[in-house]
Amino acid sequence: MKKIILLSLFFVFAFAGIVFAQTKVSGIVLDKSNQPVPFANVVFKGSNTGIVSNEDGRFYLESPNTYTALLITSAGFSDKEIPLEKAVNYNFKIVLSEAEALNEVVIFTGKTSKKNNPALDILRKIWERKRKNGLYLFNQYQMQKYEKVEFDMNTIDSAFMKNKLFKGMEFIFNHVDTSDVTGKTYLPIFINESVYDVYGDNKLKKTKENLTGNKMSGFNGNQQILSFVKDLYSDYNIYDNHLKFFDKSFTSPLSRTGIDVYNYVLKDSAFIDKKWCYNIVFYPRRKNELTFKGDFWVNDTTFAIKKINMGVTKSANINWVKDIYIEQEFEVENDSVFLLTRDYMMSDFALNKKEKSKGVYGKRTTLYRNHKFNIQKPEKFYKEEVNFVDNAVYDRPPEFWEENRFEKLNKDEQGIYKMLDTLQTVKKFKQLYNLVSILGSGYIEFKNFDFGPIFSTFGYNEVEGLRLRVGGRTYFGPNDPWRIQAYTAYGFEDNKFKYGVSGKWMVDKKKRVIISGGNRRDIEQIGASLTTTNDVLGRSFASSALFTTGSNGKLTNINLSNVSVEMEPMKNFIVQAGLSYRTLESASNTFSLDYYTTLPTPENPAGVVESKVTQSEANIQFELMPNRKTIGYGVERDLVDSPFSHFFINFSYGLKGVLNSDFAYEKIQLYYKQPIIIGPLGRTNIILETGKTFGTIPLGLMSVVPGNQTYWTIENTFSNLNFYEFVTDQYTTLQWNHDFGGRLFGRIPFMRKLNWREFVGVRAVHGTISDENRAINASGLPYNAPENIYWEYNAGIGNIFKVFRIDFSWRGNYLNMPDATRFAVKGSFGFYF
Question: Among 130, 221, 287, 305, which residue has the fewest nearby CB atoms (within 10 Å)?
Fold first, then answer.
């Protein structure tokens, strides 16, 4: 009976598809030897509606209009016309014949020529005029923007519907529809709508977007999903040389370097909106590169793009994404102004790129209207708000959306809100949602409280042995103005409990004035980073890795308390001032933090030795992160994973005598990280750290060059150094690492299908120690400083099984030091696009 119902349901949807979309065609384009013809141009005869077949020759084309014939063209083949006898025509097998007649115009075959190619002449005209078209023609501009983001499960079939996973949730399949891009069935699971007022000043090179309305269904308020959405759909301009998607740089078909990357063929010319336009088809010259296939229409006088359709090639070295499809449409404002009015992007996320694999569509539609020009605003108008808070924006009435939607929701989109609201009342769905949420955030959600993070539950070191940790945080919603976090841990070797507790309270939302404080008593590897903060709950992975290389017993008992106040006077510029109190003493019988309070003399050769450090400290720090993007406005925000510069500087003052504090000193620390995307060559990161302590201090307060004795890669550490191998009170480090993104391996035929990615890097550090600090050292640890610049270099392979990376590192010098590690292998897991 269930089979009959499901089959009936499919027939209903098939019939509904015929009603709403008048012509549908899918198939494969082959040559006479039955081999696929990639990048063939497939259009409805008598229209500008078409698509380019993929690398396997497959295509899907749909139109709300009725057409009776399909026209297929490809360089080197005779044009072929296929009659369409009915509205829905699936699985056509179209065989093309090679062009033979002398009177046929066959200009290019395979790779197109870079000389005497009319398509390239037009492309050069586009380059010349790209800054003289559209919004760039005006000093200032204003417009309204409507954005709709939707996620859908795709390739829904009867077997999928019958899965026990959906028992009790069968009603969701009433909303199954068919994609007009791929022809696959899909089920909407999320929709978000936003309306903005957009302003720009080309002279000041400033833009501003004011959010006026936002409406979301499914996973409402989930910060991780909102952050994910923002990561996926960064803004782009097709005229740019490179387009960034999923943290990768794709070569634009309109790029000045496109001639070396794409083949271009001038296919057609026609009137579009009373403007004569040329149609140019483009497809990649090589496999495995981050490129597109598709076509565009360009005006014959302004050389502005009228319409462009493009999809990422199937062989592109990108994970979890089977397809990316982009459509942009431009309207004529007057004889010389073409303005972007519609931007559509669809991504097909799947575990693999097989044709029948199931996945999730991510679709973004952006519409623009009501353009106004040369209305000048003062420069301060474009200053970004530090913390945008307007709850009314997220609670607009239905009348607002009826008025401000640029296009009406279709029948299925209208049903998403109601379906998802109902779905969230289903117990089984809640369980599935909670499981995904746990994996994403690391916390198990309860009412007003999150338990975790669960990934920190187990640890091991020589002092504690096996370590168990449990903790949690208050959580009333993603925009909480205050939050309390706490944990406790127990070591089965030392039989001791440890704990930490901290709290934050945002007392001013507009400038993000936050008061915080806490206390921690725990065991820590204090030499695990150079640039340090007084984060009470921070803990290095080096302190609790389950497996390590060599001894990891150089651990410290730490009792840390701090209070601080921070504010964000301008967007992404943070100032913080704080007070801290800490005690430090060795946690191991094989490691000492001893120092002389009285130096040895002939009369007293043993001197006076102290083992415990008691220290009060005041600090002020400044943090600048241009172009950083965040989600939410609560006391804790999520970051959008887009590259941004990071500049941090900290001044610390040792307050001798305050709460029996032992030392007076001044310390300055500086950290600077600069990511650089170098087009198709990949992404570089440069990290500079430098610092100096003025005054006499013991080992517990020195700047230890961070080693890494785990089997895993830890950022800002030296893979070939052991803990405490180098100690400094003045240091400078420079790191360079580069991700080629698979560009090199992609040129090696037998390695292309692996989709591995190449990494290289170099790290170096210079440091010194003052005579005064050497003199008070009673720890027994020999003070070695990298006065001759220690350096190491590494090469790695990433994207192994899509989730694993392995790094090989070599020590460059200081090869004769005791227990020197000349070669190391480290691994890491991650989610790679």
Answer: 221
Q: For residue 234, how many C-alpha atoms fall within 13 Å in the half-sphere facing its CB?
A: 18
Q: What DSSP assignment string belongs to 563-574?
A: EEEEEEEETTEE
Task: Please list the residues that pair with 829 across neighbouring strands.
Answer: 804
Q: Is residue 153 packed enough to be buried (19+ CB in 10 Å), middle (13-18) or exposed (0-12)?
A: middle
Separation between Cα atoms, residue 118 and residue 265, nearest integer Å: 8
Residue 533 CA to residue 538 CA, distance in Å, equals 9
* Cβ atoms of residues 686 and 674 within 8 Å: yes
Strands of 161-319 (E only): list them.
177-178, 185-201, 206-217, 242-245, 248-251, 262-272, 275-284, 292-299, 305-312
- Separation between Cα atoms, residue 170 and residue 9, nearest integer Å: 12
Render 742-789 in DSSP notation, one character per residue: TTTGGGSGGGGGGT-EEEEEEEEEEEE--HHHHHTB-SS------TT-
Residues 322-350 as b or e (16 or more Cβ within 10 Å = b): bbbbbbbbbebeeeebbbbbbbbbbbbbb
pLDDT, tens digit (0-9, with 9 covering 90-100), for 106-160: 333 356 667 778 999 999 998 888 766 678 788 999 999 999 888 877 776 666 6
Give the DSSP letter string of 227-252: HHHHHHT----TTSSEEEETTEEEEP
DSSP sequence for 609-626: EE--EEEEEEEEEEEE-T
- DSSP H or E stretch at residue 677: strand 665-677
pLDDT in tens, 738-786: 998 887 887 787 787 787 889 999 999 999 999 999 999 999 999 999 9
Tell me how far apart the alpha carbons of residues 409 and 406 are, in angstroms, rounded to a whole number.
9
Residue with tokens 């290019």: 108
pLDDT band at 23; cut points 50, 70, 90? confident
Output b/e per residue, 587-602; b: 16+ Cβ within 10 A.
Answer: bbeebbbbbbeeeeee
Across the strands, what pairs with 630?
A: 639
Give φ, ψ of 381 to 5 degrees: -60, -35
If one counts every other C-beta atom within 10 angstroms of the C-beta of residue 432, the result is: 13
| Alpha carbon distance 742, 457 (integer Å) | 35
H or E element in which residue 561 lies: strand 556-570
pLDDT of residue 238: 87
